[in-house]
Amino acid sequence: MFAGRYLWWMLMGIGIFLFATLSLDYITWLMIQLSGCGDMAGACEPALRLISGVLKPACIWTAIGILFMATLLRLHTLSLIWFWGPIVAIWFVASTPILLFIAADAAALTQPATLALLPVAFLFLAAFVTYLMFALEDGDIPLAASVPLRLTLRLTAVYGALAGVAFMPELSRIAGTLLDMPALSVVIALAQPYLQTVLTFGTGSMAPAYAVLAAFIAALAASLLSHAAAPRPSRSAIMLRRLRR
Q1: CA-CA 20 to 30 A from 77: which of 15, 86, 87, 181?
Q2: CB-side neighbour CA atoms (13 Å) of 119
Q3: Rg (the chain; Cα; Å)
């Protein structure tokens, strides 16, 4: 998936999410006012159940699915799917609870406490998704300007994925429910505190995670700058790379 199409699908997914989060409740209220069902007790119940229980969750999960699939297709186009695909999948899973929470209560997004509780995996994901929106196409070498830079990106990304696993309280319940393995839930719940201790270097503070996030963003920016300064490949080189694929 090329940059323009990727950007279009990402905007489409974000638009559907914002519609379900910010606009659907007002549309429901307007529909109730115009239909007059509020004058009769219980007359609005079927419509409310349909919108709140079916339509809104469907829109939210559709939006998340669009964002996830578009990102994977973009990674496939850039030949980055094998390493970055699992990393992005973990970031999406770790970010889903906060997205569902915001969708359920859009006003919480403006509260400083909610902003402070954003998972670090969500911030890694936002930075990486923004990077993928730039026009890196056939013949380019994304995320590979130099060996030290590539190593920095991979190490910080792995840290971000581990942080997503360690600091997601719902992970043990979700994993045990989806896989029907209660023992797995127990193992994850027991392992998470130890992983948190390792990732925070025993401090119990999120400062190391944010420092790694800053390094990840800086490495992405350096990759973009080196890409912009690099000479453009010839058309014959691009065609040869396509044939090798």
Answers
A1: 15
A2: 29
A3: 22
Q: What is the rounded CA–CA span in Å between residue 121 and residue 115?
A: 13
244 neighbors 236 (Cβ within 8 angstroms): no
Tokens linked to 17: 């999410």
Q: At how many degrees (to 10) do helices 56-77 and 120-132 cross? A: 60
Identify whether the C-beta of residue 216 lies closer than 8 Å to the C-beta of residue 87.
no
Tokens encoding 53: 């229980």
Determine contact, residues 227/139, Cβ cutoff 8 Å.
no
CA 125 to chain centre: 5
Alpha helices in the chain (DSSP H): 3-18, 24-35, 45-50, 56-77, 81-104, 112-116, 120-132, 147-166, 171-179, 182-199, 207-229, 235-244
Torsion of CA 75, 9, 11, 216, to 10 degrees: 0
| Intra-chain end-to-end CA distance of the chain, in Å | 15
Residue 111 is encoded by which pair of tokens? Answer: 């509260």
With beta carbons less than 8 A apart as the criterion, state whether 216 and 153 touch: yes
Distance, CA of 150 to CA of 132 (rounded, Å) = 15
**Identity at 28, one-letter amino acid code:** T
The letter for the amino acid at 154 is R
Query: How far is residue 67's CA from residue 128's CA, in Å, rounded to a whole number?
Result: 12
Q: What is the pLDDT of residues 189-239, one digit of tens each?
A: 888 889 989 998 888 788 899 999 999 999 998 888 876 665 554 444 444
Give the pLDDT confidence of 117-143 residue by residue, as tens digits: 788 999 999 999 999 888 666 545 566
